[in-house]
Amino acid sequence: MLLAGVGVGIGASFSGLGGGFLMVPLLLVLGYSAQKAVGTSFMAILVISASALLAHNKLANVDYRTGILLGIGGIVGAQIGARLLEHVSTANFKKIFALVLIGLASYLFFKN
After folding, report:
1. Are 34 and 89 spatial neighbours (Cβ–Cβ below 8 Å)?
2. Residue 31 phi, psi dihedral angles, 5° rounding
């Protein structure tokens, strides 16, 4: 798990996508339910994000005003999303998550 965390940390810090896009599929493959995978991922992301923020702050890559505004909106969305996830089966979650990843990958691939 520690080595997987290193990989997720590198990927999240490098891409800015957030560790959840990398960690949740890993936890699903390891047999976690959708709810447990997402919750566990958020715990790990808290630690990873704090470290990445410190590194990017030293490089002057942080717009605090925008980050705070996005964070406030994210708090509201996270509360709604957590409650919605309780009503989604792990099988359906995997399908939805895969479609989101495919859509994001397609967008990034075809965008100049």
Report:
1. yes
2. 100, 5
Which position has the token pair 């936890």?
27
Answer yes or no: are the C-beta atoms of 42 and 20 closer than 8 Å. Answer: yes
Give this prediction's pTM: 0.67
- 3 state DSSP class of 78: helix
Query: What is the average pLDDT value for the chain, to the nearest integer?
Result: 87
DSSP state for residue 77 in the 8-state scheme: H
Task: Please tell me the least confidently modeled range out of 21-25, 29-33, 105-109.
Answer: 21-25
**Other beta carbons within 10 Å of 77:** 10
Instruction: Determine the distance from the C-alpha atom of residue 17 to the mean position of all C-alpha atoms in its chain, rounded to a whole number.
Output: 7
